[in-house]
Amino acid sequence: MEPAEGSHLDALAYLECALGLLGSVLLKLVRSAYGRYASPRPACRVPARAAWALQELPSLAVPLWVCARTAAERLRHAPNRVLLAMFLVHYAQRSLIFPLLIRGGKPMPLYTCTLAFMFCVYNGYLQSRYLSQYAVYADDWVTDPRFLLGFCLWLIGMLINIHSDHILRNLRKPGETGYKIPRGGLFEYVTAANYFGEVVEWCGYALASWSVQGGAFAAFTFCILVSRAQQHHQWYLEKFEDYPKFRKIIIPFLL
């Protein structure tokens, strides 16, 4: 464990924050190019299920590789193990289960899938290397109010995210095509309930980890998903005349 690498991991975390801000600006200037926003022009595309599995898998595989190739000294401590498990549980669901549940789904542009893959490699390394080698917690950190509140937020956010994805998958009955207004759950209050769940989840993880690395991931997630949610919200307002005007974009009663 080298002090210099610890500083490098901090620098990578700050860079992740900057990338989140940059990505947020770019998404406002250039629309997402997958799903309902996919261009009809010919392009190299990846089937939806394969794209989601491939782009999310590094966040599961890279931490396992990081921990296997070196002595993960800090994982001898319960707080480090629990925090890393929180990260891995999300991405096990996202890379191994979520793709299998996709119904249909439009192919994703290769470059979009590649960018997501690269981010998952970057962030998977950052989080796992920090937690396995450098994060120092007292053994009773798991009873600290910050950890307990963060863990609860993480769990609630993940459940909101999974439930909201379930609602989106079941909007259309077998044989139906086209788009519908999501109903039920937190979709009664916000346009992007699934994104809200993910933001809550990673803010909880950041609070529980009480680290620059966890905070950077939460900040990146917030920047990117708020921009995407704004795009979705505007699309629904333009597409459906009866779209509920009281719905917020991503945060109930606020934004």
UniProtKB/TrEMBL annotation:
Alphabetized InterPro entries for the sequence: 3-oxo-5-alpha-steroid_4-DH, 3-oxo-5_a-steroid_4-DH_C, SRD5A/TECR
Lipid metabolism as UniProt keyword: yes
Residue intervals of the 3-oxo-5-alpha-steroid 4-dehydrogenase C-terminal domain: 107-255
Transmembrane segments: 108-126, 147-164, 205-226
Entry GO MF terms: 3-oxo-5-alpha-steroid 4-dehydrogenase (NADP+) activity
EC id: 1.3.1.22
Gene Ontology terms: cellular component: endoplasmic reticulum membrane
Membrane topology: Multi-pass membrane protein
Subcellular location, record wording: Endoplasmic reticulum membrane; Microsome membrane
Swiss-Prot/TrEMBL catalytic activity: 17beta-hydroxy-5alpha-androstan-3-one + NADP(+) = testosterone + NADPH + H(+); androst-4-ene-3,17-dione + NADPH + H(+) = 5alpha-androstan-3,17-dione + NADP(+); a 3-oxo-5alpha-steroid + NADP(+) = a 3-oxo-Delta(4)-steroid + NADPH + H(+); 5alpha-pregnane-3,20-dione + NADP(+) = progesterone + NADPH + H(+)
Key words of the record: Differentiation, Endoplasmic reticulum, Lipid metabolism, Membrane, Microsome, NADP, Oxidoreductase, Sexual differentiation, Transmembrane, Transmembrane helix
Keyword Ribosomal protein: no
GO BP of this protein: androgen biosynthetic process; cell differentiation; sex differentiation
Family: Belongs to the steroid 5-alpha reductase family.
Function: Converts testosterone into 5-alpha-dihydrotestosterone and progesterone or corticosterone into their corresponding 5-alpha-3-oxosteroids. It plays a central role in sexual differentiation and androgen physiology.
Name assigned to this protein: 3-oxo-5alpha-steroid 4-dehydrogenase (NADP(+))
